[in-house]
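Field: sequence (string)
Field: structure_tokens (string)

Example rows 1 and 2, in order.
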Amino acid sequence: MLDFERFTQEIIEFTTKETLKAIDWGVLDLGHIENFELKKVLIVIERQLTLELEENYRYNTTGIFRVFRACGLWCYAEYNYVIRAESLCDLKRIVEGQNRIWYVFDEVLLKEIWR
């Protein structure tokens, strides 16, 4: 069984925009991780982020990872936790202020929502 609690700090440092970008571009390399248990934990998280990113590519209409619009509000959904804001700028500020991933994966979609 994987011990996620043991690697809390490493997980926090791994779940960033830079990691998601590396996954998106297909260049994430975990070869430098020497601790085998930590590497297994990060591989599980990488797989989950990859699946979530693939789902965003299929269904997300904003071009921003985990962001959608509902009932006139901008929303950021990370599993069952949802952050809501009246403007996209406010949402970005809140998300980044909570050290969550703010990642634009599709510039074309993002430009379309600003029209």
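Row 2 begins here:
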Amino acid sequence: MKISYNPYKTTGTLLLISCAWIIFEGALRKWLLPSISSQLFALKYVLFITTYLFHYLTSETPIEKIKKPFQMTLFLVIAWCGFSYLFYSPLNSPFLVKTMGIVNYLFFIPLISVIPKYIDDVEKFEKIIINLLYISLPLLLLGVIQYYLPTDHFLNTLVNEEQKISRVSGYTRVLSIFTFVKIYNVYLLFIIPVFFSYLFYRFYYGGKTILIIFIIALGLLNTIMTGSRLPTFLCFCFILLILGYLFVVVPNFRSFIIFTIISTSIASLFLISNVKAFKDSTSAFMERTELQEELGEKGHEDYTAKERLIDRLDIYKYADEAGMLGFGIGTTYQGTGFYLSKHRPDIKYEEEGERVVLEIGVIGATLILLLRITILVYSLKLLFLIKNIKYALFLTPLVLYLVPETLFINNLTFNYFDNFSYWCCFGLILSIKNIHSNYIEKKLENTIHS
């Protein structure tokens, strides 16, 4: 009996395993195998490298020719990071610092080549969303449970014993199975808009929506329970923008959108007034927000939401100190001990943009900014070119997800899950582009034959 072997299917399996691991590794690191936490953290890199190698060794066209603006800027960013890694180290950075730096900037970029090869039809794309729905349900329920547990409870264990669980007005800031609240914020900001857009997809094609509505509500509750202002604000902005886009572009949805807004407003008021979890979390979130604003008004630097946002947008804050070339790739990374701080304790850095400038200089940061802009412009053009509602519904939340990353609002470079989510998101956008192109070609062929 002859056994057929399909390398394409194997690549897809490796990709799914790698993506599943990056979601679930926190549970093993915190609760099941804390003694080998560092090894488990490194395992995702082994899994993704295996996926990349298998893809590039078995694919007929693993690397595309440079034809689009984002491909050119991507090449320049890779070249600049390579220069910083191989030839430029003014602080004589150790090998580990430079290596982790290059990983931070470039490691997940191959996803934009791997994902479109595997996710090549609508059914696979929808299957991923459905699997995410089922995966997210227990994670979101766990978050609600954590909110009411004491900080020293087993379910609120952190990987690093030196860390301390944060609280908001007496309640625990939730992080589900993830190792940091910031990582959970990234996960929630990615899935909730995707599920929200998929809700309209199900409605349009006559599918069941009750479970999706429940999971979206649970996701929004968890977002509030994290106590993080910016991710919560962005999440609600994404939902409103999806509604606005669909209202303008899809006339058939207008009645349903109006109904959704009215019914959601009524349901929200009811939940906040009568359901303990919603009432407690909303009240605690507002108290924390007011406290932060009060501290800001009393002169504490970068405490108000406005000041914090301005600080994140000002990526060239340390341009004079960093110069054109910076202090070396990886020197501000927390995972290698903030190496720059040992040499320049006078520079106090936190936000992503200013850290990128400090590491790879004004030139490197500008190239990365151009890369993100060209990716966003390419994705926006694709969104407005696609007229088919099926593909537009899949595409809209993914394009919106790119916006805060483009402006350096999130920690794409220094939060591995944010980095993974960004390049995964753009990989999915490229997948939809290919799927839609194949759909148009088949439609033209059918028209010609008929």
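free_text_note (row 2): Residues 229 and 289 are 7 Å apart (CA to CA).
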